[in-house]
Amino acid sequence: MYHLLKGFHEYLTRKEEFSVIIIGLDGAGKTTLLEKIKTFYNETPGLEPSKIGPTIGQNMGKISLPSTILNFFDLGGQQGIRSIWHRYYNDCHAVVYVLDARDRERMGEGWEVFNSVLAHPQILNVPLLLLANKQDASDALTVAEIRNEYADWEARRRESRPRHRKSEDGDEGIWEDRHKERIASLDVMGLSALEGNGVREAVDWLFLRVQNSRRRGET
Ligand SMILES: Nc1nc2c(ncn2[C@@H]2O[C@H](COP(=O)(O)OP(=O)(O)OP(=O)(O)O)[C@@H](O)[C@H]2O)c(=O)[nH]1
Ligand SMILES: [Mg+2]
């Protein structure tokens, strides 16, 4: 009887687990974000920003929400480490792409990498959140400015494509159509991983979106 009740209790209190990957260029603030999430949601606080160095490989963090556990994988953003990102695409339930909203010089590189992430079919139907980090700094681009930057960069990219690829036929055309749809419905949020503003809103977004994720049925 005890085992039966225990099993029933476990069934009722069982939490569904989801994986979220945090990617973006080196220095964007991914680890600072993960550690802030741990501080906000766990009893044991995350690392102080001054103790965080560049990530070589991955960091993990787990938070417990109502009936849900989110497992975060913060992946190193240095060029040589980006090649491991794709190994996480098959099993993740959401993708967070972090952008340093202060770094105008590397914005183009950020979009280039962002587009190469979007090109992976495994994450086609996975919720994707673009975070414009470092909003505490007065020189950070706002969410609206970030959207414009991306739209301009995209327009230039389309313009500079070789002529034969401009044809909207074939695989390239299909990819471009899907890409346009995805960009049109892209969610962009501003936050400061350092100070914490906007962090809870981003976690709320993830919490809601993974519940409705198509991949949910696959697990
Ligand atoms: N002003 C400001 N600085 C931030 C913020 N978030 C991160 N930083 C700083 O940006 C630098 C890089 O932060 P990290 O969290 O190590 O960046 P990362 O994306 O994990 O970098 P990699 O591990 O190399 O991929 C550090 O000096 C952070 O203190 C923020 O919200 N505002
Ligand atoms: Mg890091």
Automatic annotation (TrEMBL):
Q: Which GO terms describe its cellular component?
A: Golgi apparatus
User: Which of this chain's residues are annotated to bind GTP?
Assistant: 24-31, 77, 133-136
Family matches, as Gene3D superfamilies: P-loop containing nucleotide triphosphate hydrolases
Name a single GO biological process. Golgi to plasma membrane protein transport
* Family, per entry: Belongs to the small GTPase superfamily. Arf family.
Annotated signal sequence range: none
Q: Which UniProt keywords apply?
A: GTP-binding, Hydrolase, Magnesium, Metal-binding, Nucleotide-binding
Please provide, alphabetically and separated by semicolons, the GO molecular function terms listed in this UniProt record. GTP binding; GTPase activity; metal ion binding
Q: Does the keyword Metal-binding apply?
A: yes
Source species taxonomy:
Eukaryota, Fungi, Dikarya, Basidiomycota, Agaricomycotina
Put simply, this protein is called P-loop containing nucleoside triphosphate hydrolase protein
Q: Where does Mg(2+) bind?
A: 31, 55
Q: Which SMART domains match?
A: ARF, SAR
